[in-house]
Amino acid sequence: MTRAERLSALALAQPAELDRLWTEAGINAAYAFLAAPTCTAVMAQAHAAGDGPLFNLGEVVVTRCVVRLLPDGPDGVAIVPGRARRHAVRAAVLEALARSDGAVAQMVRAGIAALQEAHATRTAARVAEAARSAAAFGTLLSEAGA
Amino acid sequence: MFTAIQGGAAAIQEAARLLARRRRGNPALPVLAPAQITEQLGLATARVMAEAGLYAPLLAGLALKQAQGDAVEAVFLLRAFRATLDRLGTSLPLDLDAMPAERALATVERPDKGGQILGATYDFSHRLLDFALLESDDSPDDPAATMTIAASPPPLPSYAALVEAGHGSPDRPPFDITAQAPTLPPERDQRLQALARGEEGFLAGVAYSSLRGYGRSHPYLERLRIGFVALRIYVPELGDVAVVAEVEVTEAVTIHTHLGGGPDNPPRFVRGYGLAFGRNERRAVAMAILDHALRVEELGGTVQYPAQDAVFVLAHADGLDAAGLVQHFKLPHHVDFQAELQMIRRLRDAPPG
């Protein structure tokens, strides 16, 4: 996984999943904030009807945090949805640990891969549940003409 | 004329205490948690997020709790909260074609595959009060396991060649009404941002007027989709683009017959576009109808009706602005009224002729 993929997996994970990974990997890392967890906004942009002009839809609240593992790194970055300081701090520390060496780092990397998979499974389940309500509407006219 | 007022501090404190008690309601009933509002009053939460121009489901639930469910008051709270935040940056354009749809309608052509996904809709339900919901636990059963269906983008319509080509963006960053003073006439990007956060009743009412003879609007709903779309931003520390959130949105595309006239203006279909945070179908469809109506001059027509008048629509679409001016009359206006009173007396005392 790239750093960006790990950042995304940590952002889209449920906070409880993150806490579980934290406990299971026995994380006890010392770290300092390069950027304390801060609630901020990202302006979401979209194109009108696909190929029309770009416009500003509105802002999305996210929380950003940057940490450095003590004593000498590496650094970890997190940007997570909503006003979520704890989620942001834990995600930043996990992102930093995933860039380190050793057994804990390996567990963290495997754990983040599992978060990504769990998120994909959740999305697929939601879409599949919605797909159960797929309808093939016909009309009397088209059926008569067919 | 505005005049300062003073005094009443003790009364204002008492009023705040009364408000807190009224908000709590009957203390014998369990207190409502913001997450319950976000989860179980999702459509109210969506409306507040859309009109605040701020996607934050839990905070919108909190705002609704604090505002006793009043949408405009909740929007006020979220906008004030937004004012305390810095902006981290701007997303890459949302890729709505890649969004896995949890509701997808196509009303002008039968889609090739998958039919329509009705999703969680009231459209086909009887509007009868369901007294079963009076019971404390009304949780439905979990669905049986289902096969996985890959999300597929909407198919290309058979009439694609007869639809206008999008004109792309002007050679500047999109207009931002939260940071720039409005310009006249507002271009489409400015209009779309204002409509996206417009008050829903106003948008629906003006769109309705354009369908009922004050706008010559005859739209078809080409597509309506609801789902969670990835919010992607460039993260400088990584030198890479990452998904930092998934945002639930409703997208509506209307398609309209345009007769045109002349060689550069052939008969064709043109589109209106609506996009909103959250599950917001009425808002998204009304926005698309109004987006098209407000393109009248760009499409070679002239403004004849309120729905086509960008200055009128944009100046009055914001629910918070409207509520502020309408409700400020509740404040003391003693000085202003004294001036009017003196004028009336002077006029009556003046000798006739």
Give a short summary of the structure.
The complex is a heterodimer of chains A (146) and B (353). Chain A has 5 helices and 4 strands; from the N terminus they run ααβββααβα. Chain A has helices at residues 3-12, 15-24, 85-98, 103-131, 140-145, and strands spanning 31-47, 54-69, 75-81, 134-135.
- The DSSP helix count of chain A reads 5
How far apart are the first and last residues' alpha carbons of chain A, in Å? 51 Å
Average pLDDT of chain B:
91
Adjacency order of strands in the biggest sheet of chain A: 1-2-3
Query: How much beta of chain B, percentage-wise?
Result: 15-25%
Radius of gyration of chain B: 25 Å
- Ends apart, CA distance between termini of chain B: 31 Å
Strand tally of chain A, please? 4
- Helix percentage of chain A: 40-55%
**Run of helices and strands of chain A:** HHEEEHHEH
Order of strands, widest sheet of chain B = 3-5-6-7
Question: Can you walk through the features of this model?
Answer:
- The complex is a heterodimer of chains A (146) and B (353).
- With 146 residues, chain A is α+β, with helices and mostly antiparallel strands.
- Helices cover 47% and strands 29% of the residues of chain A.
- In chain A, helix 1 runs antiparallel to helix 3 (85-98), helix 2 (15-24) packs across helix 3 and helix 2 (15-24) runs antiparallel to helix 4 (103-131).
- Chain B has 353 residues and is α+β, with helices and mostly antiparallel strands.
- In chain B, 35% of the residues lie in helices and 16% in strands.
- Chain B has eleven helices and seven strands.
- A four-stranded antiparallel sheet of chain B has the order 3-5-6-7.
- In chain B, a hairpin with a 4-residue loop joins strand 5 and strand 6.
- The longest helix of chain B is centred in the first third of the chain and has 16 residues, at 9-24.
- The model of chain B has no long low-confidence stretch (mean pLDDT 91).
- The interface between A and B is large, with 59 and 83 residues.
